[in-house]
Structure formats: structure tokens, C-alpha cells
Amino acid sequence: MLLLIVLIQEFRAFATLSPSTELKSNYSTATITWPPVELTLGFLGPINTDNPDSRIAGQPALFAFKLAIKEINNRPDLLPNTRLTYVYNDTNSDVGQGILATLDQITRLSVIGIVGEFDSLVTQFSMLTANVLPICAHTEFLNGSSETRPLEIHHETANQETLILPLYGEIVQDYTEWTQGFLGLQHFVDENSEVYTQYKNHWYSVLNGGNTPIIKPKDQTSSIPLIANFAYDACFTFAYALHKMIEEVGRDPMLNCELYMEVLKNVTFQGVTGIVSFLEYGERLIPFDILNFVNGSLVKVGSMTAEALSIIPRSLEAYFKVSSCSTCVLDLWFTNIGYTLIIGTLLDSIETNLTRFERKLSLCVAFCVLHL
Question: Where does it primarily localize (predicted)?
């Protein structure tokens, strides 16, 4: 799973810096040029071609990571005085390799942040290895509610509830008698939006001009791998935070760790996975559109947050026990890009002798969910 690890040094010196200023740091005798001419981001993930995770996650994420770095460097409005470079390590989905790679990037390569890891177990140990680093993760490696999470350094590019929702789809297996209707979670994005259109065009133009067969789709109608979208937005999360620190606040993120974490927490921008913003404990604030069928077409009728969405499966599960032949169909699935909750009209099962009360009860379930 993807995570962002922001390098935090153990010093707490706060120094207000202005452009073109040179500063003698209190932790080194080296002269630091301000603003920094170059900063390095790191990438961790399985990129070994023998590892199946490389095809579905590691290689696409690395490709998107490189693409984002290139686009950030080409934007005059984002870090105009600083160039981003990158390093990457193959973890091969192995905890030991992940720990060594994290240490290497932090101590030897002096990265300002790390994008990675795909595997949640490797993520946990990378986080513990980094120890004092704020994290922005596309993973569910931390359990519990925001109020009980022990680490304020934690950030996510995808809310935990959105990742575990497919598990609730198992409930559907016991209700195969239903023939119509659905309540579904689907990745969705406006592919005509300027952000996504540019991203997709850059993705295919680079693919067509390079030797990347492991992630090259058959044609431009193929979906860009989901994990790549989050890796791409992870890079831009860093870029916007670094821009704020360097160009607007005028402070060195390497020296002002606490402020750097606070800036990261307050980053908001339009990414390819939707609006990227974070809650108090670093959870991704993901809105879900509610759509319903109107005259044969899907029409947006409302929206909800991931917090509201997380209670839906448990709420509906109670109604499953009301009657063996009177309930609604629950079907959760993912396709790609962005998040949209689709709510279909509740229809009949193959059981035809339902009472009016049972039919009305079923309709009420769908209605209540629709208006959460």
C-alpha cells in the first residue's frame, strides 16, 4: 500500500529564512543555500519483475511517481526555485528489505520524504523504522478510530473505510435469490476534468515513448492502475507542502519539523483521485457522491463522507435478519479512479409472496441509506 513518509530530523530549530539567504545550520558546519536548489524524494515498493505485486502495484506506482516528479519540475508555479530528484529501492514485499531501504534513504540519501510501500506489513515496519516521520498512507495499517490513534504523524491518501469495504461484499453470497437492485461502491472520476485529462495524456505519451512493457496497457481505453493514481497524488502532496514551506512561509522543512507536519496536514488540492485533504489525525477526507437511477441514467442526488459510509454495511446487515425474503441487495465493488457510492432502487427477490409491510420495509432501508 502506498504511504508518504516525510523526513523529520531530530532537531527542533526554527529559523525564518528569506530567498537567497545562506545559513550556517546548528547541526552541521556545512553552508545551506536558501532556497534549496534540489530536494530528493524516495520511493519504496516491489519492483522485482518476479514478484506479482510488482505488476499490480510496484511498477505502476513507480512509473506514476517518476511522472509526477517530471511534471512538478516543469510547473513554474510549483517549487519554482527548487528541483525535485528521486531515488527508489526494491523492497520485493519483504519486511527486512523494507527496513533496510527506509534506513538507506533516510541516513545515506537524505530524502525529504518517501512514497511507498504497497504491502501493509512492510508499511508498518517502515513507519517504525522512520520513527519520527509523519506519514501519508494509502493503507489500513493503523486500526481504531481517529480519536484513539496514537500517532499524530499518520496521514493517508485513502480513508481506511474505503479499503475494507469490499470485505462486506461477502454478505451478498447468502442472498443470491435476489434478482435486481444494488448498493455499490465504485471508483469514479470525471475523466473529462482538466486534471485527469492532462494526467492521462502524459501517462500514455510517456508510455508510448518508453520501454515499460510491464505496465503498458493494450490501448488508451485501458484503465490506469489505481495504485498509480495514489502514488501520483502522493508526490503532489509533498510538492504542495514543500512549496508552502519554502516559497510562502520561508522556512526549511528539514529544520522546522513540527511546522512541516502541520503544513502537510493542511494540504488541499485537486488530484487525480479527487480532492486531496486530511482530517486531524491525517486521515484522507474523501467525499462520496450518491447517485440514483433517474429515467435510466445515473444522477447525483447527494454526497456523504467516508465516516458516514462506514456505518452503512453494519446498518444494513441488521435488516438482513428481518426476513429471509425481504431485504436489500448489498454489493460492494471497485473499478478504478476516484470514489462514488451508487445506490440502486431496491427491487423484488424471486420470492413473490411478500407482504406489503415487507416490501415497504425493504424500500425504507434503501430510502434511509440514500438520505444518510
Answer: membrane
Smallest CA-to-CA distance from 183 within 372, 371, 370, 320 is with 370
Residues 53-89 as b or e (16 or more Cβ within 10 Å = b): bbebbbbbbbbbbbbbbebbeeeeebbeebebebbbb
Residue 132 CA to residue 135 CA, distance in Å, equals 9
Angle at 186 between CA 181 and CA 192, to 5 degrees: 120
Q: Which residues contact 191 (CB under 8 A, 6 or more apart)?
A: 197, 200, 337
Q: In terms of domains, do 224 and 146 share one?
A: yes
Any alpha helices (H) in 116-193, and if so which ranges? 120-130, 160-168
The residue range of the domain holding 300 is 287-370
Pairing of strands 31-33, 22-24: antiparallel
Q: How many whole angstroms separate alpha carbon 366 and alpha carbon 14? A: 54
Residues in the chain: 372
* Spacing of C-alpha 220 from chain mean position: 23
What CATH number is associated with residue 152?
Answer: 3.40.50.2300
Residues 261, 325, single domain; the answer is no
Pick from 13-17, 73-77, 157-161: least confident = 13-17
Residues 219 and 343 in one domain: no
- pTM, entire model: 0.66
